[in-house]
Amino acid sequence: MKAFRHLDGLVVPLDRPNVDTDAIIPKQFLKSIRRSGFGPNLFDEWRYLDHGEPGMDNSRRPVNPDFVLNEKRYQGAQILLGRENFGCGSSREHAPWALEDYGIRAIIAPSFADIFYNNCFKNGLLPIVLDEKIVDRLFREAFEEEGYRLLIDLDSQTVKTPSGEKLAFEVDAFRKHCLTEGLDDIGLTLIHRDEIRAFEAARKIEQPWLFNGNDK
Amino acid sequence: MKARNLYDKLWESHVVRQEKDGTALLYIDRHLVHEVTSPQAFEGLRLAGRKPWRAGSVLAVADHNVPTTLRAGGIQDPISRLQVDTLDANCVDYGIEEFRMNDLRQGIVHVVGPEQGATLPGMTVVCGDSHTSTHGAFAALAFGIGTSEVEHVLATQCLLARKSRSMRISVDGELSHGVTAKDIALYIIGSIGTAGGTGYAVEFAGSAVQSLSMEGRMTLCNMAIEAGARAGMVGVDEKTIEYIRGRPFSPKGEGWDAACSYWRTLKSDEGAMFDREIAIDAKAVKPQVTWGTSPEMVVSIDGSVPDPEDVQDSVKRQGMIRALDYMGLSPNRKIEEIAIDKVFIGSCTNSRIEDLRAAAQVVKGRHVAKNIKLAMVVPGSGLVKRQAEEEGLDKIFTEAGFEWREPGCSMCLAMNDDRLSAGERCASTSNRNFEGRQGPGGRTHLVSPELAAAAAVAGHFIDPGKLS
Ligand code: SF4
Questions:
Q1: What's the A98 CA to ligand 1 centre distance in angstroms?
Q2: In chain A, where are the structural domains located?
Q3: Nearest CA in chain A to B15
Q4: Could you tell me which chain B residue has the CA closest to the CA of A123?
Q5: Calpha distance B153→B159 (Å, rounded)
């Protein structure tokens, strides 16, 4: 996993609440058995005017000029500004894979759906929750100022605006640690394998039926 | 001892260790796997040279991609086929039990787990699928996870998680005639919003919930995720225990009695506290129909499409305008005047035997309206299908003009060939009405099986009681 510490990135404002993971990456692309290559189909139904299917040459498809990601001034954006309940719906991790593959490294919104929020951390993406009023203001600034950038510093847990204002955000210590170090959390968990074994053994005695069925 | 709620009990009994910041290592008892969210997890496992920690805790089934017609010849779409083949191969390689496509026990993972007794009270149940909340109907702590977490659970039998806040939604009083679990679910989402449950584990309680069958409770918990809650749950009572008795994976003999006495403790203690409590009057719930592109955009069957002009909040108003435009609806249109093109009865929300019985009851002796291009019933599993056929439900549906299909997710998410064309309007018993969910440009209205069946017969939405 890519480590995340600081990011000085161009901001793209996606002004809709309840952006769901079906919209982030439509189901026809979920048939892939790989983890990469989803970027060109990020927001496929909003981004292109035709219907996308896996294996198409996306560079030849008609793009929707009204969709914010297609605007010239937002090309190369690394920070996505979103509204409430971002990432709701399906648990598909293809959503953060697509965002990451496209080049997004952080998402700022007033709230995120739980599973999506978790999935981001597993893929080196930083979801940042800021107060609704502040997000509202960031939207205004991002629309007004071309080339609007934000400076994210995970160590100090702050987002710095062009005017120099610092906005603090919360993040769990454990997640922060994994993200700043780019750690594989399976490896970290397996450090505790003896504890897991002991827990399992006790469980087998207390609730033996959990280990029946197909668990011979 | 301090009074604990059901969620406290389930959580505390699975914590292997806890970090200072509250992150816990949670032991997972049951891991359900399907073809769409698992290939990259198995790949990760292989690349790291790891093996499943406890292959016996895993049960796999292909459901999202499988065709609902012509199965003997295999899957035609090569990309879908590769995904299902990949699951088959991974299960063979790692000694994981799988119900393959042509196995009678195959079906939607959230129908199959409980049906097999693979979901038991007191378990932690995970699956790379958001509707894993369904299994909470059995007083299990059940929630959806992403693919990295699927890999994590395969490799370690544990998950890193933080305890959510707790919410109790009590639905008390008597339900009106024709009001189903689906209507309660949609009504709740309409009241608290699709983010209303975010960060919470929700317990459904109250006399109206207790009066529901296990199928109904599964429908309710299934939709908890649409209210933003990762987990929904209902405490154990005798109905729970009766449902589990004698299922293939459920305990037998002495183990059964020991299990039952433990399971009976799996409910919130008297006086237990919750971070948030919501009370719903069962009498206020009427049959529900969604009009927009989010499950919270919902009204009663006797209502009308709302007017964005009546809404103060500008973000919300814009969302409504977009939704109405996508749905091809104008404000104040009566719900019962909305004509539909297709009807889908199926999905992990409403494809169990009870759902099919209820729909068949409405359809019996009637015929699908002329303007309906397709009305289909997709049973939740091969076993549900067989049971329905034994009861003659398939005949009722086919004689009325419905198609009777093989089990799978089907038009709930349209990953196989079952889908809406652009502009088509569907009465669907599934759980998501997002843009493009049932096919690009497709328009989904979420309803109960009864309402879907009535809509098929009338050609537009109608209260089933008004059918001639
Ligand atoms: S039926 Fe629909 S919601 Fe349920 S698991 Fe399948 S795709 Fe997901």
A1: 21
A2: 6-171, 184-216
A3: A199
A4: B148
A5: 6
Which two tokens mark A161?
Answer: 């605006």
One digit per residue, pLDDT tens: chain B, 468 residues? 789 999 999 999 999 999 888 999 999 999 999 999 999 999 999 989 999 999 999 999 999 989 888 777 788 888 889 999 999 999 999 999 999 999 999 999 999 999 999 999 999 999 999 999 999 999 999 999 999 999 999 999 999 999 999 999 999 999 999 999 999 999 999 999 999 999 999 999 999 999 999 999 999 999 999 999 999 999 999 999 999 999 999 999 889 999 999 999 999 999 999 999 999 999 999 999 999 999 999 999 999 999 999 999 988 899 999 999 999 999 999 999 999 999 999 999 999 999 999 999 999 999 999 999 999 999 999 999 999 999 999 999 999 999 999 999 999 998 878 899 999 999 999 999 999 999 999 999 999 999 999 999 999 999 999 997
User: Could you give the CA distance from residue A3 to residue A121 in angstroms, rounded to a whole number?
Assistant: 10
Question: Tokens for B383?
Answer: 């076993």
Is the CB of B98 inside 8 Å of chain A's CB atoms?
no
The Cα–Cα gap between A101 and A104 comes to: 7
First to last CA, chain A: 36
Q: Judge: A27–B17 Cβ closer than 8 Å, yes or no.
A: no
Please give the model's pTM, rounded to 2 decimal places.
0.94
| Contact call for residues B342 and B374 (beta carbons, < 8 A) | yes
Q: What are phi and psi of B444, to 5 degrees?
A: -105, 130
- Looking only at the bridges linking them, the beta strands covering A149-153 and A6-13 are antiparallel
Instruction: Give the amino acid at A123.
Output: N
Could you tell me where the DSSP H helices lie in A14-89? 21-24, 44-47
- Report residue B274 as tokens: 């919750």
Question: Given an 8 Å threshold on Cβ–Cβ distance, is B19 in contact with A91?
Answer: no
Q: In this structure, how many other beta carbons lie within 10 angstroms of the beta carbon of residue A51? A: 16
Residue B217 in contact with ligand 1 by CB distance below 6 A: no
Closest residue in A to B60 (Cα) is A214
DSSP B49: T
Distance from the Cα of A198 to chain B's closest Cα (Å) equals: 9
Contact B127, B105 (CB under 8 A): no
B413 lines ligand 1 (CB under 6 A): yes
B140 CB under 6 A from ligand 1? no
- At B317, is the secondary structure helix, strand, or coil? helix
Contact B160 A174 (CB under 8 A): yes
Q: Which amino acid is at A143?
A: F
The answer to whether the CB of B108 is under 6 A from ligand 1 is yes
Q: Do A174 and B199 touch (CB under 8 A)?
A: no
Q: What does DSSP say about strands B298-300 and B288-290: parallel, antiparallel, or unpaired?
A: antiparallel
Question: Residue B431: CB within 6 Å of ligand 1?
Answer: yes
Q: Which CATH superfamily is domain A6-171 in?
A: Aconitase, domain 4 (3.20.19.10)
